[in-house]
Amino acid sequence: MGLMYIMPVSEKEIDRIEINETKDGKSITLKSYGLPLIFWGYLAGILVVLFAMGLAIKGPMLKMLQMDDPINHALAWIVFATILAIPLTLLGFLFYEKLITKVGTKLTVTHRLFWIPVYKKCFELKKNDSLYVEHFLDSPNMAKLEGKQELRAFQNQGYYNLHAELSSNKFILIDRHSRRADLNKLSEILSRY
Predict the structure, then answer these.
(1) pLDDT tens across 28-48, in order?
(2) What stretches of 9-130 adopt beta strand conformation (E)?
(3) Among candidate residues 34, 1, 2, the one with its CA nearest the CA of residue 15
(4) pTM (2 decimals)?
């Protein structure tokens, strides 16, 4: 999700970074930014379409619910549940937040939905600064293999992953981004705490 939910890369972004004193030392918590405002426009468009669809199928759905056939009842309730689930899922994307908290060698990644923590994982790092940025290219770069100048815009550049080495010598993915410099800054900020 790091390609869409950007993490802060400077300690000057005080609305997205919290620095606290704990018994183990200073802790830092980084909060991801939300999706750009254009996604609210997309949501509004989708809601208008769903509302129109709901008006169009209201009559047939009510008839299906009045029938004695259990299959028609099930289909009507499935359609109703789907029309309700789509906006709730899309709102979930708009109210998703990722938090990265670090104190010494302890790293905690928390995923929140509507400000409620839904998944939290704690890791023990090998060293305080055992964070590594790595380039990731997931498919062959066919446009680059062709070598034509007019295909330059279609070249797959891939993205970068921020990995942490754990005390068990395993590597985990912390975040990903299309810019290496931003992940390097994120790594530097986390390494200081």
Answers:
(1) 888 988 888 899 999 999 999
(2) 17-22, 25-31, 96-103, 106-113, 116-124
(3) 34
(4) 0.75
